[in-house]
Amino acid sequence: MKELVIVSGKGGTGKTSISAALACLAPQKVLADCDVDAANFHLVSGATIRETHTFTAGFEPHIDEAACSHCGKCTSLCRFGAINSGIITAPLNCEGCGVCAFNCPEHAIAMKEKQAGHWFISHTRFGSLIHAELGLSVENSGKLVSKVRQEAKKMAATEHLPLIITDGPPGIGCPAIAALSGATLALAVVEPSVSGMHDLGRLADLADHFRLPLAICINKSTLHQENTNQMITWCLSKGLPVFGQIPYSDTFRTAAQSGQTVLEMPHSDVKKELTILWQNIASHLRLPSQTSTLDLLLQKLNIFR
Amino acid sequence: MLISIASGKGGTGKTTLALLLAAAHSQVTLLDCDVEEPNCHLFLQPQWQAAGQDITVMVPHIDSDRCTGCGACSAVCLFSAIAISGNSAILFDELCHSCGGCLLACQQAAISEEQKTIGTLTAGTAAAHPGIYLLKGTLKVGTPSAVPLIKQMKQTGLQLAGDILIDCPPGTSCSMVTAVKDSDFCILVTEPTPFGRHDLELALNITRLLRLPTGVVLNKSDGAAGDESIETFCASRQVPILAKIPHSLAFARQYAAGCIPGEFQSIAASIWQQLKAERSAGT
Ligand code: SF4
Ligand code: SF4
Ligand code: SF4
Ligand code: SF4
C-alpha cells in the first residue's frame, strides 16, 4: 500500500485543489484529509458522512468544589495561570498537565480525558474519505492526524486499495510532521513567489530530516516565469524532482466556488498538466497510471474540453 | 492599539493584508507570529538589529547519579515525556510542556531545570518602508509547539509604544489563539469560496469565545455569487465587513516578485479609519 501525502510550506498554494484533482485521476484509492485544523476536502468532493467517531486526547481538570478547601496551592503551582484556588479561571490557558491535581492536599481535582474533536468516514464522488474536525483551540492536532492516517490505512487494507491520497496540513509543525512520517512520497505544492521559495526551503529541510522522498509541483507557474525557472534550478541542484508545472488558471477559483474539482469544470485549461503530474507520481510509485474507466469514457465523449 | 490579523486557514491573504496595513501607517510595529513560516521580512527587507535573541523554554534535566529509577516523574507526566529505562529516567524533550510536575514529584531531588532553545526572535526597521518596525519569530525546525515562542514575542512587542499589528498563524489551534488573544481588534481575512466561508466560521467561533471585537476583510472578491454568500453569513453573525479587496492578477504578480503593491492603498487607509473609529467608540 502506497501513501502519497500532499503538503505545502504554507496554506493557499492550491494544495487542496491539486489533491482533489489527483483524487479525480487516480483510479483506486482511499482519501484522507489531514488538514484537521481547517478541513476542506469534504467540501470539494461532495462528502456524505457515513460514520462519526469521537476523538479524545489530553486531559482536563474536574474539580470537586465540596472537597476544595481554597488553600491556593493549585494557584501557586500552575505555571499557566489557568486556576485560582480551585476555580478554572482561564480554561484556554490550561495545558492539562495535572500539576494541580497531583499536588492538591484535599485530592479535590481529578484529571479526565478531554474530548478533542471528531473523525468521520464519508462517501464522496471519488471514493471513501477519512476526515476530521479538531475542537476549537485544542492541541493534539498531530494525534488526530495520526488517527486519520491510521483509519485510512485500515480502510485501504480491508478494501484492497493500493493507494492512499492524503491532503496534508500546511506548515512544518507537529501536524505536518505527523502527516509525513513514514509516508511513501510527499508532494509539495508550491508557488513561484519569493515566499514560496522560502517555504519550500523549510519544507525540504523537514523532508530531509525525516529522510522522506519529496517531489515538487509548481502551481501558478506562469505567475512569475523567472521565479519558476529559478525554483526548478534550485530543485535540480537539491536532487528534488519537479513532477508538475501547473500554469496560473482562473478555473481553480471558479471550480472552488462551485464545489467541484478543476477537472470537472467544462473547458478546464489545466487538464494536460495535471495528467502529466499524475503520470509522474504513478510511475514513481509504480502504480498503473491509467485513469479510471469512467474518466476515459468522459474523455472520449469530449466532455472535459 | 493591538490588531491581530487571522484567518481560519492559510493562503487567504493574511500576510498580504498585514503588509498593506503596515505600509499605509506612518509608524507601526508588525509582529510576524506565523513562526512556522514567517514571510513578512521577505517584503520588508529589514536591517536586522544585532544578533537574534534565542527564545527558550525550561525543560527538566535529570541527574542520573541521583536518579533511582523509581518512576514517580514518569507517572505524573501526562504528556509521556519521561520514560523509565533500567533504573534511570529518560526525557523526550519534544513532548515536554514545561509544567514542572516531574520536578515536584521527584523525592530524590534528581530533577532540575535547564533552558532549551525553541526558536529565535529578530527585529529591524524595514528598508523600503522605514515606518515599519518588524519583529520576526522563527520556530526551530522539528519543534512541535509554537505557543511559548508566540507568547514571548507578544511580551516583547507589547513593551513598544504605538500601534501593533500581528500576523497570526493560520488555523484555529492553540498557536492561533495565543496570537489573537488580548488584541483590541481582530481582523479575519477570507475569500468568497465555500472553503473561505467554512474556515471563517471556525475562526469566528474563536474570536467569540475570546470576546474579541471582530471584522472581516473579503479578499479576492469579484462581486459575484461567492461574495454574497460571505456577506449573508457575516450579516447573520453580525460581523462587519471592513473592506473588499478585488481579485487582481497585476497585484498577484508584483506580490510574487516580493513587492508590496500600491494598488489597494486607499482600501488599507479606510480600514485604519474604521479601526480608529472603533477604538473611539469603544472607550
Ligand atoms: S489545591 Fe486543592 S484544595 Fe487547594 S485550592 Fe486548589 S483545588 Fe482547592
Ligand atoms: S491542569 Fe495544569 S495547566 Fe491546567 S489548571 Fe491544572 S496545573 Fe494549571
Ligand atoms: S522521580 Fe526522580 S528518582 Fe524517580 S525516576 Fe524520576 S528522576 Fe529518577
Ligand atoms: S515538565 Fe511536565 S511535561 Fe515536562 S517532563 Fe516534567 S512533567 Fe512532563
TrEMBL record, chain A:
The keyword Metal-binding applies. Residues 59-88, 93-114 form the 4Fe-4S ferredoxin-type domain. Coiled coil: none annotated. Keywords: Iron, Iron-sulfur, Metal-binding. Pfam families: CbiA, Fer4. The keyword Iron applies. InterPro entries: 4Fe4S_Fe-S-bd, 4Fe4S_Fe_S_CS, CobQ/CobB/MinD/ParA_Nub-bd_dom, P-loop_NTPase. It comes from the Bacteria. This is Cell division inhibitor MinD.
From TrEMBL, chain B:
Pfam families: CbiA, Fer4. PROSITE patterns: 4FE4S_FER_2 (PS51379). InterPro entries: 4Fe4S_Fe-S-bd (IPR017896), CobQ/CobB/MinD/ParA_Nub-bd_dom (IPR002586), P-loop_NTPase (IPR027417). Residues 58-87, 88-116 form the 4Fe-4S ferredoxin-type domain. PANTHER family: 4FE-4S CLUSTER CONTAINING PARA FAMILY ATPASE PROTEIN. This is Ferredoxin. It comes from Sporomusa sphaeroides DSM 2875.
